[in-house]
Design goal:
It is built from 2 helices and 8 strands. The protein is α+β, with helices and mostly antiparallel strands.
């Protein structure tokens, strides 16, 4: 091998090592970002064949109690929320939407901080085979709590 080609190979290897180090250091930095409690709800979707030309998409949203803002009222702790799941085509047209509103009442402050207690909701959408869709979950607070609470979580799926 010529001396010039060895230097080129070493330069390429060095550039790849530096590039990988930069990429991985940025992804680690993003994953350590502190999230607020409202961002900690869970959105999960599963697909099941419905017919030869369509797929059922079952989407679940799980809202842990600690992700909500409770207010003490008459000896109880109360939190209200509105959760929704929507399915949109990649081009923006909505295929379906489901909204739930609920109020949670607990007697113990410890329950408001529970990482085990939660509310789950689910909905089933039917999607044509080959469609690229976004499943979006949204959580908002309701009642007369003064701090606005809104967060969206989305996932893109191909069926």
């Amino acid at each position: 091998m010529e001396k010039g080609s060895i230097i080129n190979i070493k330069s390429l290897i060095l550039a790849l090592i530096i590039g990988n180090a930069l990429i991985f250091s940025q992804s680690r930095h993003r994953s350590k970002k502190n999230r607020t409690n409202v961002e900690k709800f869970v959105l999960v979707s599963f697909a099941q064949a419905a017919s030869p030309d369509s797929v059922k998409v079952v989407s679940f949203i799980e809202i842990p109690y600690f992700a909500l803002q409770f207010v003490k009222e008459n000896g109880q702790f109360i939190a209200g929320y509105q959760a929704s799941i929507s399915l949109k085509r990649k081009k923006g047209r909505e295929l379906g939407h489901k909204v739930w509103s609920d109020t949670i009442r607990v007697d113990s402050y410890g329950d408001t901080q529970s990482r085990i207690k939660n509310r789950k909701h689910f909905y089933t959408f039917t999607v044509p085979v080959g469609e690229i869709v976004d499943v979006l979950g949204e959580l908002q607070k309701i009642e007369n709590i003064s701090i606005p609470l809104l967060f969206r979580l989305g996932k893109s799926l191909t069926y």
